[in-house]
Automatic annotation (TrEMBL):
Residues 14-83 form the DUF202 domain. The lineage of its organism: Bacteria, Bacillati, Bacillota, Bacilli, Bacillales. GO terms for cellular component: plasma membrane. This is DUF202 domain-containing protein. Signal peptide: none annotated. Keywords: Cell membrane, Membrane, Transmembrane, Transmembrane helix.
Amino acid sequence: MEKKQTVDSTYIQQHLASERTYLAWIRTAIAIVGVGFLVTNLHFNKLSEMFTWADTVVTTIGFLSVVLGVLTIIVSTVSYMRKRGQINTQTFKASYGNVIFLSVSLLIIFIAFFVYLLKVMIHM
């Protein structure tokens, strides 16, 4: 019994590279959520009694980190599915919008965390 070659197998290297990229995005999402938990854990375990004004800031940073992590998973999954079809039809287009959106969102979260740390260090 002969097995027929599939369209996916014609571009196997591209599909495997796309899978690796997708998995890298998933690891990034996990790291983003981890940063949110780290910030909130650090604050509420060590600094909450000293800086009650920061409770809202830290809670917001943690919430935004979780939301951004979930969005990263959704965007990367949709992007991966689109790229599968684009690879097979040889109509691949790089997705700059996704990268820019996620990069700007991360910068906002990290800047907020940096400002929080500066204020905590100044008040200590």
